[in-house]
Design brief:
With about 325 residues, the protein is α+β, with helices and mostly antiparallel strands. It is about 30% helix and about 20% strand. The longest helix is centred in the last third of the chain and has 18 residues. The structure holds iron/sulfur cluster.
Length: about 325
């Protein structure tokens, strides 16, 4: 064990001040405490933010949805508005982790969770993300679950969150509160691809606190859903996943929001798939043609070449499920 201080805060300004002094925020504790037990993370100061008033789900003035950072996964998944208006979000949450974890883990913590790369969690292995400059054991090691999109010669770890894939598809934004006030970061810019600095995983500055995730107003009606493909049907991370939302009017697809999980170093938006869908009428052929574009730019590794075809099939199937034409 290693020593660390523990402070509980009850207002956001105290949290930001403590964060600015180098404290690490903890709420549900389902990721950070695990990593501390394994000594992958060794924070000197923990700031318990669980009591902050960030647990509301509200409709925004422009018709979007704001989910407070401390809303628990289970509560967000069960929320009536989330279930009826954004099933892709509730389904992604319900397919994540175990019921026990969903009762503890928060939305903010979920999008901040760290990779499940086994080498990252093995402190005896080379890992640029855990220890910059030490190498990447996964590149030459067992890389079946790793990324085929967005990797670098420094890191090929996938981002493990499911709901982050739904947020990426819906072009959500992340609200941050920091020493210089509030700012909003598009989800596409919030999580960072590894490049030459895989230890930098997100756009948060020192002291900044996630206060909410906001989903912008969507065209209505919107059909949506989430498909997760994994080695076993519960308590397992995605090999591939697809978040799909479609707006149809007059039998034509007017808007398409599609993203993939389990394949990218960050949740992977699929603009080429979206572009292929817009303006067309749903058909079995269309779903397959669009999904053919899902793996554009993929660089598979020794053990995960199967993900290229699996990704296309995952996207095609979920387009079919949401689009309603077989
Ligand atoms: Fe570390 Fe990334 Fe390599 Fe995994 S893939 S060992 S997290 S550097």
């Amino acid at each position: 064990m290693f020593p660390f201080s523990y402070t509980k805060v009850s207002d956001t300004s105290a949290a930001v001040a403590a964060g600015q002094r180098g404290g690490r925020y903890v709420a549900g504790g389902t990721t950070l405490v695990d990593l501390m037990r394994e000594t992958v993370e060794r924070p000197e100061a923990l700031v318990d933010i669980a009591a902050l008033p960030l647990r509301d789900i509200t409709t925004t003035a422009n018709g979007g949805l704001r989910i407070g950072a401390l809303v628990r996964m289970a509560d967000a998944a069960a929320d009536r508005t989330v279930r009826t208006t954004y099933p892709v979000v509730s389904e992604a949450l319900e397919l994540s982790a175990s019921a026990q974890l969903r009762n503890m883990a928060t939305i903010g913590g979920n999008i901040m969770q760290r990779t499940r790369c086994t080498y990252f969690r093995d402190v005896t292995a080379a890992c640029n993300k855990r220890q910059p400059g030490s190498g990447c054991a996964a590149l030459e090691g067992f890389n079946r679950t790793h990324a085929i999109l967005g990797g670098s010669d420094q890191c090929v770890a996938t981002h493990p969150s499911d709901v982050a894939v739904a947020f990426a598809a819906l072009e959500a934004t992340v609200r941050l509160l920091g020493p210089n006030g509030e700012r909003t970061v598009p989800f596409a810019d919030f999580l960072l691809q590894p490049g030459a600095t895989p230890d930098r995983e997100h756009a948060i500055q020192r002291g900044e606190l996630i206060t909410a995730v906001e989903i912008p107003a969507q065209p209505r009606p919107l059909r949506s859903g989430y498909l997760k493909v994994r080695d076993r049907q519960s308590y397992e991370f995605a090999l591939t996943s697809a978040a799909v939302a479609l707006h149809l009017q007059g039998g034509v697809i007017r808007a398409a929001k599609v993203a993939a999980g389990g394949v990218g170093t960050v949740p992977w938006k699929l603009p080429a798939v979206e572009r292929h869908l817009i303006g067309k009428r749903p058909s079995a052929a269309l779903w397959t043609e669009a999904a053919e574009r899902a793996a554009d730019g993929a660089s598979p590794l020794t053990h995960n070449r199967f993900k290229v075809e699996l990704l296309k099939r995952t996207v095609a199937r979920q387009l079919r499920v949401v689009g309603g034409t077989r």
